[in-house]
Write a structure and sequence with these properties.
Structural class of chain A: mainly alpha
Order of helices and strands of chain A: H
Number of strands of chain B: 2
Number of helices of chain B: 25
Radius of gyration of chain B: 23 Å
Helix content of chain B: over 70%
Strand order of the largest sheet of chain B: 1-2
Oligomer: heterodimer
Number of helices of chain A: 1
Distance between the termini of chain A: 58 Å
Structural class of chain B: mainly alpha
Order of helices and strands of chain B: HHHHHHHHHHHHHHHHHHEEHHHHHHH
Largest interface: A-B, 25 and 33 residues
Shape of chain A: rod-shaped
């Protein structure tokens, strides 16, 4: 595989995967809002 | 109107359902084809720019609009839009948010039924020992419902109905059913996708054969990812990127609004929306970019891939089953199961989302019970969908032209989305107002939304959408924008392509073919195509009118209730 293609493929994959993982971790770590009835 | 108390069971379930709504067959088939045709690896640059400037803003707009409408008990776009601006016009514009879903579900469930059928055939070993030509011909035999591939009469219709029954059953279980389907479907899709992506990335030259001695999966990756940076100056590439972002996120449909309408008032939309958006991007770029092209190149070589017709649906249904045969009896069965299972899960998580706007509308406005609302959706889709299965013609080379399918896909699955997204962005940013809109996005937010997005949503996103719409309206001949501008400035007018909205409306391409054809049999087929196109358009207009009429009745009912209450 040529270097240019490899660099752009891996960069795109790393950026997108990192963002997805980062946002998902934030979703999981954030406690749910308190319900009005509580 | 009746009050629905249904809410999402869990945050992860909601995000997976939203991601499932966005992830579809296009992630695996359309994205690689677009990238290859528009600058290879360089395509990712306009693609990500459009994601940041148009995709994410649209997700925030739609999630916020949905949650805002949900606060007033509205779960479908006609009255979600009404809750944002009381002018009567918006209610009827909101009809798009129900109409599009039914019309798209009509043909989308048909594609979904192909994947289900191919899962069955992969397990049953139908493709074992078949040549490439035979496997390829199988697809058209399947679509030509007058013939049977397995002895089951009208097999395509049977699988289509099975698919509708599955969708209707899950929808009848309400949000709980949708959430469960997403919690099973998306992880399965990721597992199946990862298996095939690893295979695609590690195939190398092991798939080469005497027939295709130069086949190499790495050439496929080079073909897809080698950047042609000069393509970035071509407007066509930017339009293609904007179009891909737009369609991959399933925005402009009304499904995101509907799902978000079941959020609680204090629930976050900012973080949820980007999480769902990036999950879709992961499936599209990381998995979608590592399966079809490298595997096909690994067995056939890049030269084969560049020939017309060897991409998209053809590649998915005509070539992949043949390639899997080369993996040995057990792995070929598993690969077929994984590939078509992956496409099935991608499809069903989207088609379920398409059912919820109509159901929400019927439940809100006509007090219809959930089960009956789901069955109503199933029946309307069946009525609208059978023409997509049955209104087809055969081409001289034996391939099948799904005429009504194409009309639905273009008018409901393409044009309506852009028109609706344009209007909703203007409503949100300019009529509802960015002050209130920004407050809605940030209300309950678990993510600090960068302030720059306030201006992006107000100025850049609407302009980008208008450009996408104009790009479709006046697509120049051969998609050559630079040539068209030169022609215009030289006083020779704007040469319209037959793919432009204006010429599509006039059936220009088909009419030209009819005019230039002398062969009697071909002429008869072309005229039949034209008749089928008119029937499909009449059905779409009838559907839109019917929903508008229901919205009118619902509006009158609301007015009467308000008068009685006073």
């Amino acid at each position: 595989m040529n270097t240019d293609a490899l660099i752009i493929m891996i960069s795109a994959q790393v950026i997108i995967t990192s963002c997805m993982v980062y946002f998902f971790i934030r979703v999981i770590k954030t406690p749910p809002p308190k319900d009005d009835n509580e | 109107m009746s009050k629905q108390n249904e809410k999402w069971g869990s945050r992860v379930g909601l995000i997976l359902a939203m991601a499932g709504n966005a992830v579809g067959l296009g992630n695996f088939l359309r994205f690689p084809a677009q990238a290859v045709a528009n600058g290879g690896g360089a395509f990712i640059i306009p693609y990500l720019v459009c994601f940041l400037l148009m995709g994410i803003p649209l997700l925030w707009i739609e999630w916020s609009m949905g949650r805002f409408g949900g606060k007033f008990g509205n779960h479908s776009t006609p009255f979600i839009l009404d809750s944002m601006d009381k002018r009567r016009f918006w209610k009827y514009f909101g009809v798009f948010g129900i109409f599009t879903n039914i019309a798209v579900a009509a043909y989308y469930c048909y594609i979904e039924s192909w994947t289900l059928s191919y899962v069955f055939h992969s397990i049953a070993g139908t493709f074992d020992g078949k040549t490439m030509t035979e496997v390829s011909a199988f697809f058209f035999k399947y679509l030509d419902v007058s013939r049977s591939t397995t002895g089951i009469p009208y097999e395509a219709v049977v699988f289509y109905i099975i698919c509708l029954i599955i969708n209707t059953y899950i929808l009848s279980r309400g949000l709980k059913g949708v959430e469960s389907a997403a919690k099973i479907g998306i992880p399965m899709l990721l597992i199946f996708g990862a298996f095939l992506a690893v295979r695609g990335l590690t195939l190398g030259t092991s798939g080469a054969s005497p027939e295709f001695p130069d086949a190499n999966a790495l050439d496929g990756l080079n073909f897809l990812w080698t950047p042609q940076y000069d393509s970035l100056s071509n407007p066509k590439v930017w339009l293609a990127a904007a179009g891909q972002i737009f369609f991959t996120l399933s925005v402009g449909m009304g499904t995101v609004h509907c799902y978000a309408a079941y959020l609680r008032e204090k629930d976050d939309v900012a973080l949820n929306a980007v999480s769902a958006g990036f999950t879709n991007e992961f499936v599209e770029v990381v998995l979608g970019g590592a399966i079809v092209i490298p595997i096909a190149a690994g067995y056939f070589g890049v030269d084969w891939l560049t020939q017309p017709g060897n991409s998209g649906f053809g590649l998915a249904f005509q070539s992949m089953p043949f390639l899997f045969e080369k993996w040995g009896p057990i792995f070929s069965m598993l690969a077929g199961l994984f590939w078509f299972g992956l496409l099935f899960f991608a499809g069903i998580t989207s088609s379920l989302a398409m059912g919820t706007p109509l159901m929400g509308f019927l439940q809100d406005e006509f007090n219809v019970k959930r089960n009956k609302a789901a069955i109503t959706f199933g029946l309307i889709v069946l009525i609208m969908g059978l023409p997509t299965v049955l209104l087809y013609t055969l081409r001289a080379n034996g391939s099948v032209n799904l005429v009504a399918f194409g009309e639905y896909d273009y008018w409901a699955g393409t044009v309506s989305l852009v028109v609706f997204a344009m209007a909703e962005t203007i409503l949100f940013a300019w009529i509802f107002g960015m002050k209130k809109g920004w407050a809605e996005i940030n209300s309950g937010a678990d993510l600090k939304v960068p302030i720059i997005y306030r201006y992006i949503i107000k100025y850049i996103t609407p302009v980008m959408l208008i450009i996408v719409f104009l790009g479709a309206l006046i697509t120049p001949l051969g998609n050559d924008w630079i040539g068209a501008f030169n022609s215009l400035t030289a006083g020779n007018g704007w040469p319209l392509d037959n793919e432009s909205l204006i010429n599509m409306l006039r059936l220009n391409g088909l009419n030209e073919e009819i005019k230039n054809t002398t062969d009697v049999d071909t002429l008869a087929i072309l005229k039949q195509n034209r008749t089928y196109s008119y029937i499909a358009r009449a059905l779409l207009i009838g559907l839109f009118t019917g929903i508008s009429w229901l919205v009118f009745i619902a509006y009158r009912k609301r007015q009467h209730s308000e008068l009685n209450a006073n």
